[in-house]
Design brief:
Strand order of the largest sheet: 1-2
Oligomer: single chain
Number of helices: 12
Helix content: 25-40%
Radius of gyration: 22 Å
Strand content: 5-15%
Length: 330
């Protein structure tokens, strides 16, 4: 049985990951048109924020503004897409998992303005299986990573585009934080927090793990799949929820186990990049090297040529040998 036949046996996560790598694009615009992936990322972002909470997705102001914001940050500039939400909203139906409910008769082509489009379209819905997957944090993360890897970093050897995109997100974070702080000062309210953007986090993760050559900085493990998925996470060193720092300097690549251990404070890193493992936990590891045997090992660092930062004291936990657990912080 072929890979595609196996995937089509059920509309599971693997099926949609594979489908997201092969979105249809216009013959006129070429194979790299970004409209559909940016719309999908915008929808996933709004689902995560709770602004889309049922499977009837309307052409709302929240979707319009989120699409425009992501277009400004993610687009290569080759195509004109801002304020053209109607374009991918209509043509995404060719993918089979996106279903449009028209107010009257179905159209063959979308009207060329958002206002006219809203007059004829009631809502769209995703496959129930896909919408259910998007309620799960881990499934969302995989689907986002597939979209980013396939549509915004076509060549894993060339990370420059992702670095530029990440810098745009960081600039947007800084502007949003300044706006929030100014508003709170005027209203004499306590500090508010930036809304979580899973797209921003996805770009950050991809740029960080590429910088570390898709290896875990703790154990050196590297596992990749054909659809550009891998076993490591791009983790924040200083928690984003506290510092709003999405620069690559504030990132490190860990496998799932050691990402969890880092967030729980089971190990830290010295000024000269040596691993110090806590004694305050029990461990059984019959088939792999125990964590405690990595004590005093050198961290796997990015190659100087590919690194976005110079070697410096940038590890948040240094000030305290074993920090307060960072549970829930990416």
């Amino acid at each position: 049985m072929s890979e595609n036949q196996e995937l089509n046996r059920g509309k599971n996560l693997a099926y949609y990951c594979q489908h997201f790598t092969k979105l249809k694009t216009s013959n006129r615009l070429g194979p790299n048109a970004e409209y559909k992936p940016i719309l999908l990322l915008s929808i996933i972002d709004l689902i995560t924020q709770g602004l889309i909470n049922n499977n009837q997705i309307t052409v709302s102001e929240e979707l319009r503004s989120t699409f425009n914001k992501h277009w400004d940050i993610l687009s290569s500039g080759t195509y004109e897409g801002k304020d053209k939400l109607y374009f991918p909203f209509f043509y995404l139906k060719s993918e089979g998992f996106w279903h449009i409910e028209f107010k009257n008769n179905p159209l063959k082509r979308p009207p060329r303005s958002l206002e006219k489009f809203q007059d004829v379209v009631d809502y769209a819905s995703l496959d129930p299986e896909l919408f259910e997957l998007l309620q799960d944090q881990n499934s969302r993360k995989e689907l986002i990573d597939v979209l980013i890897a396939n549509w915004f970093s076509a060549n894993q050897k060339d990370i420059k585009e992702l670095m530029v995109i990440n810098e745009r997100f960081q600039k947007d974070n800084n502007e949003e934080e300044s706006s929030i702080n100014l508003s709170n000062q005027q209203k004499k309210q306590p500090k508010s927090y930036l809304r979580k953007s899973v797209v921003r986090d996805g770009i950050f993760r991809k740029a960080v793990v590429h910088t570390y050559n898709y290896k875990c900085a703790f154990c050196g493990m590297k596992v990749t799949m054909s659809i550009k998925q891998n076993i490591v996470d791009g983790a924040h060193i200083k928690p984003f929820a506290r510092f709003y720092d999405n620069r690559i300097d504030n990132g490190i690549s860990f496998c799932k186990n050691h990402h969890w251990a880092f967030d729980k404070g089971l190990f830290t890193i010295t000024d000269d990049y040596k691993i110090i493992v806590s004694n305050n936990f029990l461990e059984e590891s019959p088939n792999s090297k125990p964590m405690k045997e990595f004590n005093s090992n050198q961290l796997w660092l990015p190659n100087e040529k590919g690194a976005s930062h110079s070697k410096q004291k940038y590890f948040f936990p240094i000030y305290s040998l074993f920090p307060v657990p960072r549970s829930g912080v990416p």
